[in-house]
Amino acid sequence: MFPKLVQWGDFFIPTYGVLLAIAFLTALWLASHLGRRVGLNSERIMDIGLIAALSGIVGAKLAMFLFDWDYYTVHPGQIFSLGTLQAAGVFQGGLILALLVSIWYMRRKRMPVLTTMDVFAPSIALGHAIGRVGCFVAGCCWGAPTHLPWAVTFTNQESHDRFGTPINVPLHPSQLYESGAELIIMAILLWMFRRPHREGAIVAWYLVLYSIVRFFVEFVRNHEQALVWGLSLTQWISLATLAAGAVMLIRARRRVLVP
What we know:
The protein is mainly alpha-helical. The chain has one domain (about 5-259). The chain has helices at about 15-35, 40-65, 70-75, 80-85, 90-110, 115-140, 155-165, 175-195, 200-215, 235-250; strands at about 5-10, 10-15, 150-155, 170, 195-200, 255-259. The strands form three sheets. It has a two-stranded antiparallel sheet. Strands 3-4 form a two-stranded antiparallel sheet. Strand 1 (about 5-10) and strand 2 (about 10-15) form a beta hairpin. Helix 1 (about 15-35) packs antiparallel against helix 6 and helix 6 (about 115-140) packs antiparallel against helix 8 (about 175-195).
């Protein structure tokens, strides 16, 4: 595809990085807009967005290192390589660490944790949807081989050199599957947010819906790690986050409706 948006000599602007920046700014705008609707401080929302983004990047990278532990123990120098720096990492690892750090910050600032998390849930879905388009354009996080009519074939050698993307092989556009699903999830969450709902239900539904999507998308994604009992490590994490979301939904039923 187009891993480089523009290039002057050896200097170039990566397309993925630009789309990632757009994803962050768009998600932060939506979170700020929704936060104002429920009376949250806009500056605090901005702070949480920045903290979540930074901790999300760290969590995604750490999860990537753990998933590929055997490779990085043999090639420790690759931890600080340009390819590793540009790699998206494991989204769920970033999501989990971002949630934990954000909750710590919210408690420290005495913010309503569940209400704030509800505000950010649609924003995360929107940002992730744009980010997956970045993955598709860059050529990373590719799908499994397929001969379906909508299969995509990567031909850019730079994508192969940077991410190992198979070239001239028809693949599932798994990045676009996930991006489209995240847009649908965002629409559902926004619809729920604007209606009377129980505190914590929005973020709970995000965990449930995204976990289901990611679990099934994994069946058509390339897997560099070994399967555990027939499932990828990401699928096991999806089952855990699905269970966490279900528990949150059960607990939310005890709370009063938020107008």
